[in-house]
Amino acid sequence: NLGYYLNNTLYGYLPYKDLIINNDWYIGDYNDDFTNIYKDKVSAKIGLYNIADIKLNNDTKNYYLLNGGLAKGNGKERGENRMRSGKKTMLVAGFFILLVGLLCSACGGGAAESEKLEGSLQDMMASLYANADLVQDFKDNLDSYETIDLTDDLEVSILGTDQITYTEGVVSMPMMSSMAYQCVLLRVDEAEVESAKQALKDNADLDKWVCVSAETMLIESRGDVIFFIMSDKDTAAAMNSAFQKL
Hints:
Layout: H1 2-13, E1 23-26, E2 41-44, H2 51-56, H3 99-103, H4 111-114, H5 121-131, H6 136-140, E3 145-149, H7 155-159, E4 168-174, E5 182-187, H8 193-203, E6 216-222, E7 225-231, H9 233-244
Antiparallel strand pairs: 1-2, 3-4, 4-5, 5-7, 6-7
């Protein structure tokens, strides 16, 4: 299938294949709610767009998607020449047309170095807000949000557990609002990234706010930095997209 071709035949011909790294990419079915794509993922070097990428960049044309479930009458996307794959493509992930830019390390460096996010988490959080495609109402209220360092006394209320070891952590949230929102960045030992992500998933409470609940949560990582957000679906997707572009 296409996934096998991209990750074996094509990959074998690439002169820079040693610089391409594996990544997790989302292949869940798209049925009315695009966040369903985050329910399933594969790890591969080369792949295609998922529906969230198109939702956040709807000027893109002529593409195949990783995600199935578009043949229910709601698949009429803008652009007459858009091509879709009718079913899930196994073993495929990522952006094929952006392969070199996203997955290759710069200036001949190693693949691990390409995923290393430099700079403080405070600066990264500021960059997420500056570059995320957020709705105007959210942007208008950003003055009431504050990004603070994560301390021992905040761990259980923010992370749901105090059993995650991290070297740096920040959380952004509204200071005077009942809005169900928090965005966390954690820097952990790379060997403990997956276990820390699992701990966050196991202990996340979407109903911890008074009278309101978050619609969804997303937990991602790049290198030794973990991105953890609980919010409405559109905001979570926009912030995650900005994180992937750091």
